[in-house]
Amino acid sequence: VGNKMAEGEKNCDVYPIIHRNSDKTCIVGAARHFIFLTFCCVLLLSAIPVSEGTGKVTGNVQRVNSNNGNSANPPADLYVLSEEEANKTGAYCLDGSPPAYYFRKGSGDGKNSWIVWLQGGGACVNLTDCYRRSFTHLGSTKGLGHTKTFSGILSADKDINTDFYTWNADNLVYCDGLFFAGDRRDVVKHNDKSLYFRGRRNLNALIDRLVQTGMGEADRIILGGNSAGAIATYWGADDVIGRLPTAVGVKIIPDSGMFINIPDKDGVYSFNDTYTEAEELHNAALSTNKECLNQYENWVCHFPENLVPFEPAPTFILNYLYDRVALKDVVKTTCRPDTCEGKDLTAVQNYRKALLKVAQTDLRKQDGAFLITCFEHGLHNNDPWTKYKVNNKSVRQAVGDWYFGRTTDNVHVDMGTDLNPTCRQDLGNATEVQSIWF
Fold this sequence. Notes:
Layout: E1 17-20, E2 23-26, H1 33-44, E3 57-58, E4 61-63, E5 76-81, H2 83-89, E6 100-104, E7 113-118, H3 127-133, E8 147-148, E9 168-172, E10 188-190, E11 193-195, H4 199-212, E12 220-226, H5 228-242, E13 249-255, H6 270-282, H7 290-293, H8 304-307, E14 316-320, H9 324-331, H10 342-361, E15 368-372, H11 382-387, E16 389-390, E17 393-394, H12 395-403, E18 411-413, H13 421-424
Parallel strand pairs: 7-9, 7-12, 12-13, 14-15, 15-18
Antiparallel strand pairs: 1-2, 3-4, 4-5, 5-6, 5-8, 6-9, 10-11, 16-17
């Protein structure tokens, strides 16, 4: 979207050019010169405002054409900020491509209700890892699919997502490498490639664009995210809410973002050291909650358990008490909780106890939580959303009851150490666990 002509390219007045990423195809045909010229100019002009639904451009956002079909859960369309908008805001993915989001329009009584979901996908802690990531969909918007089918809390299927299926749904593409949080002005060269660490600018630019194209009329908004997107939600909810109309009601739902500050199985606070290294590379030290930063040192405010009391809106925590990614990175163990022994078992239970403490001491009256003893990561997708239960209540039911005020008992926690039976059958024999750092 909005690629500039490289130096030395032939002028479109003579040779119409179709741009696709960095490739150039020149098509010359005297008889059809005018047709090709017109097509070329349409591709290059990425900021012409036309009505949504034409499949072309809305404001400074390029919408990729798609066919939604008539399914119960139609896919969302991809929207990419134009080069003009990216340059204006300084918002870029790791590789310099503009940020993007997927959007599915709401309907009926949900037309003024929005879910903004921050995509997850780990994080990069050093230049080598960020360089590798810049060639993937986690570091670039080049080559993204034109559509995306949402699940769980974002699904448009009433049978899956009973309370929110009619809502406008946005999934913000995660392509900066550190929780939508980096704010480094300089461009870093690595292996002759320019790398941009602009996560917070990406988040701000995308929220501003959504406000300008419909979300500014919202009555209510859910802000959430999974994994790295959950950490981004804990860190950046105050910045997001500060960019919204003051009258809109906001609630926060971070999913699987509790990477907490406890020692690993050898008694070392190793995750803290890695956190610090990543924050320095991305210049993200001041991108977390401002109220927390006003009272504590920076490092304290980078751990989600410390941010819960400062969140600017009612918050519902979704998390596994045996979150497999957090256990790998925080306490350095990958054994299944029902097979762990010795110091591995002690470390696993220390994580569970620390998370229970958050539910017992840090939640406010308006908050809620769903904490379940499963060895998994991510509760927002179809199966966990509908099938996993604590005290006979599913994630879907717990979130809906909390959001709409249908009950005052909104903290749902497995108190025992055994694996929850509603998710145990999904474990299989796999013990391979992906780190959040990649």
